[in-house]
Amino acid sequence: MNTISSHYLDELGIIRWESRYAPQTAPVCDESAWENLKETVKHCRQCSLHQGRTNTVFGVGSQQASLMIIGEAPGFHEDQQGEPFVGRAGQLLTAMLKSIGLRREDVFIANILKCRPPDNRDPQADEIQTCTAFLTQQIALIQPDLLLAVGRIAAQYLLNCSSPLKSLRNTIHHYGESQTPLIVTYHPAYLLRSPADKKMAFSDLQFVRKKLSTAVR
Fold it and tell me: Which CATH number does the domain housing residue 79 bear?
């Protein structure tokens, strides 16, 4: 366990959880459709965000993931590396996953937007509308058992609501026509600014672990 992971768990006063569940048979992702989607995202010019990007940020992780994590948009480091949730916030997310016995490669991590908004501003309605089709296809191809929305903007978008994040926690919501179960928690970047809320975030992760343990694939 790395230093950041240990520090995160020590702050919460918890012991690292190790999975005891036997591997389940996962849906098989259509590899051809997946690669076509990845290429479409890579070359997308449907909105003005393509003008300032270094890289598109398609997502990373397992195409057979039971858990799919969704944030709002890439930041500076994500744009530079072409991977979601890197930098300090990404390190904290990795530590959060380890606290419930998961690795980054066990889940799939994506954002609503695939390009970084200028100066990390909030996504605009037309940008979200443009990228919705990409995210919808990712979810359809992966067929996760559970979605985890991290942060207010991702949660409000996925649930089509304006409720504050605190009121959306501790509840199983459902997303889209597939009615995929969805849980809401804090964005790691927020937790870096407000470490007192890490305990509530860990409570959300325990909720995630409980839901995944009952999922049948």
Answer: 3.40.470.10
Say if residues 78 and 43 touch (Cβ distance below 8 Å): no
Q: Which residues contact 179 (CB under 8 A, 6 or more apart)?
A: none
Q: What is the pLDDT of residues 88-104, one digit of tens each?
A: 999 999 999 999 999 99
Q: What is the domain count for the chain?
A: 1
pLDDT at residue 73 above 80?
yes
SS3 111: strand
Name residues whose C-beta falls within 8 Å of residue 145's C-beta, 6 or more positions apart in sequence. 66, 67, 180, 181, 211, 212, 215, 217
Domain of residue 39 covers: 32-212
The tally of CA atoms less than 13 A away on the side-chain side of residue 87 is: 15
Query: Which residues, at least 6 apart from 49, have a Cβ–Cβ distance to it below 8 Å?
Result: 113, 115, 116, 117, 127
Q: Is residue 2 part of a domain?
A: no
pTM to 2 decimals?
0.86
Tokens 């419930």 found at: 100
**Residue 139 falls inside a structural domain:** yes
Q: Please, which residues have CB within 8 angstroms of residue 13's CB and are 6 or more apart in sequence? A: none
Burial of 53 from C-beta contacts in 10 A (0-12 / 13-18 / 19+): middle
